[in-house]
Amino acid sequence: MRARHSLVFIIAAVVMLITCVPLYASETDDRIVSSAKESYVFKTYLKGDDIKIQSKDGVVTLTGTVSDESHKSLAQETVGGLPAVKSVDNRLEVKGEPLAKDSDAWLKTKVKTTLLFHRNVSATQTQVDVKNGIVTLRGEATSEAQKELTTEYAKDVEGVKDVKNKMRVSKASKMSDEKIGELIDDASITAQVKMALLFHRSTSMLHTDVGTKDGVVTLSGKARNAAEKALVAKLVADIKGVKSVVNNIIIDESVSKNN
After folding, report:
1. How many Cα neighbours within 13 Å face the side chain of 191?
2. Fewer CB within 10 Å: N-end or C-end of the chain?
3. CATH number of the structural domain spanning residue 194
4. Strands 59-66 and 50-56
5. Model confidence over 167-215: pLDDT tens digits?
């Protein structure tokens, strides 16, 4: 009798396990899709794009169209940073003709995107024009320091030859595009950091791993010297949503920028 009861219990447990696993997987996939749609990146930078998100057992597929190549990468980086995501199949297509690498239009997109990520400059108050690799900035800055920082970020974008900053300093202009007290999810912070480091020529070739927990960004990887290590931390600290930076990058003089 006791053996029969044990067998019944085991069968019941197996049945429950079989029926519960798909349910749990479905709930996880639903949570992934919901988290992606509610992320800061999707609600702010990608809100004008037509992106469809599907998740099956943690494997996410992105389909639809985006306005430019940077949005395609930003969507993948954001989704890939969400909990329980195993991989991302990025099938997004860019509207219109693809921009030639290092063309004026491509550089303009990179500069505008870079300014969007940094909290101490204002992308909405800055007009960007590019001709023959030379960037011209117009608009308003809140101070000379903000104007100079805008120049610094634009000049450090890979492919930019020079920057002419014709911005006016006006204390009446917005201090930042980031709303005070605005909470930005960790996946969006990580995606912004990765894209910013990729776009800046000073950090584009460094192999930097990025992790974010409650707004605290942890950096690991290798730099050739202390100056490179400090520069990465400086750029990351100014990314929207970052509360603090833990810099675990190690200095290795044998590291080559071509690796």
Report:
1. 27
2. N
3. 3.30.1340.30
4. antiparallel
5. 999 877 665 555 555 689 999 999 999 999 999 998 988 889 999 999 9
